[in-house]
Amino acid sequence: MSNSTESRQPVPNAPAGTPAKANERPKYGPQHRGGGPMGHGQGTGEKAVSFGPSMRRLLGHLRPELPQIIAVLVMTVIGTAMNSVGPVILGQATNLIFDAAVVNKTAIPFDALGRVLMLALAAYVTFFLLSWLAGFMINAIVQRSVYRMRQQVSEKITRLPLKYFDGQPRGELLSRVTNDVDNISQSLQQTLSQILTNVFTLIGVLVMMFYVSWVLALVALVTIPVAMGLTMAIGKRSQKLFAKTWKSTGELNGQIEEAYSGHELVTVFGRRREVAEQFRAKNAELFDASFGAQFISGIIMPVMFFVGNLNYVVIAVVGGLMVAGGSLSLGAVQAFIQYSRMFTQPITSLASMANLLQSGVASAERVFEVLDAEEEIPDRDGSLPQPTQGRVAFDHVSFSYDPDKPLITDLSLVAEPGSTVAIVGPTGAGKTTLVNLVLRFYDIQGGRISIDGVDVASIPRRQLRDQIGMVLQDTWLFGGTIRENIAYGKDQASEAEILTAAKAAYVDRFVHSLPDGYDTVINEEASNLSAGEKQLITIARAFLSDPTILILDEATSSVDTRTELLVQRAMGRLRAERTSFVIAHRLSTIRDADVILVMEDGAIVEQGNHEQLLAAQGAYYRLYQAQFAAAITEDDAA
Predict the structure, then answer these.
(1) What is the dihedral of CA 431, 437, 443, 444, to 10 degrees?
(2) CA 47, CA 68: separation in Å to the nearest integer?
(3) Measured between alpha carbons, how far is 63 from 68 in angstroms, rounded to an integer?
(4) Digit-coded pLDDT (tens) for 478-524
(5) C-beta neighbour count of 317 within 10 angstroms
(6) Which of 79, 211, 270, 337 sits at 20 to 30 Å (Cα–Cα) from 167?
(7) pLDDT at position 235, please?
(8) Hey, which residues does 468 pair with through a beta bridge?
(9) pTM listed for this prediction
(10) 3-state helix, strand, coil in the chain (%, to 5)
């Protein structure tokens, strides 16, 4: 587990596309996605389903189950063969009765009839047992394959760069990982066993039809091109609608997640009606796509029934004429009529599965888009010296989110081991970007960043982030106990280590006032704790991780003055003997920093300590005076 206390938290998101300003990027804390409570996520562009290649790739995920698939194929072949000979056997029974009672006017040979019926029963029972077993194995094959797919998606997400999440609404991504994977599972489970059974039944019945009467078989085959042509024409029209259905599902999930996570802002600003209208519009879009896809694909079944009944009538008439002419026995016609039903039923069933397959493949394409996304640059084999001192150096670093809009250009600075470097400046100056680059959330385009003389680009990300702890303005706590949230900072942390970290961060002061103490469960919104209490827990987590380098990003901006004193004390303890980067808006909190960097438009315009920068009366002086004047104005207003 990484010691970076916040590096594994959910990554924030923004609407797809370029931000309003090139240097305005979301922070790493769990915050609102998608451009405000009133926005909705931008899904991937609609594309026509590439059914063939996507279906082959989806079936490729079943390759590890090849031995089991072969066993299923063998059982299906034997089972459908037993089912296919059934009508011929029953036709022999009909001939025994007809020849004895009608032609020869003799007693019915019940012994021979019984043996024939028992043979038919054995064939049908064998078919039932093998079909059941094959279906059971298919379900197991599908579930294991989908399990592996979920694993692949989960592992893929851990390898994706931060910029991927910046361009994907969270609800849209979650929909691909959950809804689309579940739809793939259901589609494969409901269709694979039926497809195998129906295909082999179709082959077996066709062979038996030619065995019984090649004339009637040719009559029956006339309907196949008609059935296939209608199925392909209908299926082609529904493919795009199924793709649009799952795209709209992801966008609707993104809109719901966005409105729910920002429900307080929605209520405060009186935008509930607008949110409801956006939901209705997106819901209507999903309804139209889903209804259209189901309606068009639903036409397949009635069309196939019509073709099948037409085929049945033609065979009955031609077969009757052949019996009357003496060229075919009554039992053979009876068997062939059964075969005609058995022949059209698999075609009808396969056609009815077309919508399920199209829906599943549409979902598979959305999952494949995640699996095919560009990954982070692979780790190299470098390593940090042990023990790590924490000397961080920026050497002529250049970086931009958009190649056409440079953000950081030719930046150089050195943070000595154990020193505190404060970073101040207006919004969008590149402060958070600077620490993002240390963590390699983004890779630089020019220059070099090193820790203890080792280029961070050569250090595996896991090892790099193990040396870095973070405390953010936006506290992230998961739905567990306070003890578990603190212990998140270190693998297999002991109770004594957790308590020591809690006391150092002043968590111990308030935790005993809670009914369950350290076993208090933090609810989903963490609303049972104050902002200051949540912040102290994240500081305790950072204490427990014992990092060499510490990043504090506006960690006191959302707490009251009294709590800020506790947080400041806790952060003071945490910074001791660690290289610290402190991003702050309240300049009063960084007076004791060893070096203060003033950033504007991605460049360091001033650096020095508090007294030096005030004496210079430059950018820092102006920021300080502006805050001081604002504080006086607020006091006068009060």
Answers:
(1) 60
(2) 35
(3) 10
(4) 888 889 888 988 888 889 988 888 888 888 888 888 888 888 888 76
(5) 11
(6) 270
(7) 64
(8) 549
(9) 0.64
(10) 60, 10, 30
pLDDT score of 20 more than 60: no
Tokens 């956006």, residue located: 278
pLDDT of 36 reads 34
Sign, CA dihedral 224-226-227-231, equals: positive
Name which of 71, 69, 193 is nearest 131 in CA terms.
Answer: 193
Specify the CATH number for 379-467+586-638; select among 3.40.50.2000, 2.60.34.10, 3.40.50.300, 3.20.20.110: 3.40.50.300
Give ∠ CA 377-379-385 in degrees, rounded to 5.
140
Share of the chain above pLDDT 90, in %: 5
Between CA 413 and CA 34 the distance in angstroms is 34
What is the spatial distance between Cα 102 and Cα 100, in angstroms, rounded to a whole number?
6
pLDDT of 184 > 70? The answer is yes
Q: Write the pLDDT tens digit of every residue in 206-225.
A: 888 888 888 888 877 777 67
C-alpha separations of 186 from 73, 97, 180, 223, 249 in Å? 21, 47, 10, 31, 17
d(CA 359, CA 292): 13
DSSP strands (E only) in 485-569? 549-553
CATH of domain 63-371: 1.20.1560.10
How many other CB atoms are there within 10 angstroms of residue 49's CB atom? 23
Structure tokens at 463: 């090892």
The CA distance from 613 to 595, in Å, is 10
